[in-house]
Structures are given as C-alpha cells and as structure tokens.
Specification:
Layout (H helix, E strand, L loop, with lengths): L1 H18 L4 H5 L9 H21 L14 H20 L9 E2 L2 E2 H25 L24
Antiparallel strand pairs: 1-2
Length: 156
C-alpha cells in the first residue's frame, strides 16, 4: 500500500511544480468536472487524504480544511507538505491484518484503497484540463519512479 501513496505524493509534487507555470487566473478558472478549478482539485486531494487517514490512524472525527483559507498554490502545497508527515507513519506501518478492521460501515482496507484511488481519479482530471490548456500533463506512469520501498529502505 505504501508504494501507491508514495506514487501519489510524488505525482502530486510534480503537479505542484507544473502548476507554477500557470497564472493564478488559470489555476482558479472554473472548469467542467472535478472541484471546478485546478487549485481546488489539488486542495481537495490533500484534504480528503488527511481526513480519512487521520480518522483511521488516530480514530478522530473527520476534519476538513477550508479551501478559502488556502487561496494560493504555495499555500495548498504547504498544506500538502504539512499533512504528509502526519499520515506517512500509518501508511508505512500498514499490515495485511489491518484490512478487515472495521471503520464505521467500511473496513480499513476499503478506506485506504478508496483514498489512494481518489487521488488518482482527480489527477486524471488535471491531465484533461492540462490538455485543454494545450500543455503536456504530468505522466501517470508508475514505472521507473523508484518506488516500492519505505524511505528508510532506499539506498542512494
């Protein structure tokens, strides 16, 4: 499971870099689908991930950030960089026996896979919007990303 989250975080960072080439207007322009804008889509990805994983990890009620408190790309990126260290330990320590653990009407396994797929879905929307702007989207390719290991296992 860790590899998919590592992939999502890596691709998300690449999208943040990609977005730095856009104007603020292009980031917030209303578009069809998703959350309506590139910036709001990125914010939504971060917010949903942290809400679900913190719920699983800490057993706390779902907490959502307010998009209006993060009106710029740098603020959404900073929120992402703030949230990942809070949820990374739970993802790194994921064990198969966690799969069937109940979480309301769901299981931990259902929730964690939903969260991973949720980001991939919204990143796909960013790719469509990039093409509508006549720009090359970030690759969704999983191959050759040097993934599959926990940070402590990677020897450079």
């Amino acid at each position: 499971m860790y590899m998919i989250f590592q992939y999502n975080w890596q691709v998300r960072e690449e999208w943040f870099d990609w977005c730095e080439t856009l104007t603020h207007e292009e980031l917030v322009d209303q578009r069809d689908g998703g959350l309506g804008s590139i910036l709001h889509n990125l914010f939504h990805i971060v917010d949903i991930e942290q809400a679900w994983i913190r719920g699983l990890h800490l057993g706390t009620p779902e907490y959502h950030y307010n998009f209006n408190d993060y009106p710029t790309l740098s603020e959404v990126r900073a929120l992402s960089q703030q949230c990942i260290p809070d949820i990374r330990p739970f993802i790194e320590q994921w064990h198969e026996q966690d799969e069937a653990e109940p979480f309301g009407p769901f299981t931990y396994g259902e929730v964690i896979r939903h969260v991973a797929a949720h980001e991939i879905h919204h990143i796909g929307q960013l790719s469509v919007w990039a093409r509508q702007l006549d720009k090359q989207p970030i690759t969704a390719n999983l191959i050759r990303r040097n993934l599959g290991y926990k940070n402590s296992d990677i020897i450079e």
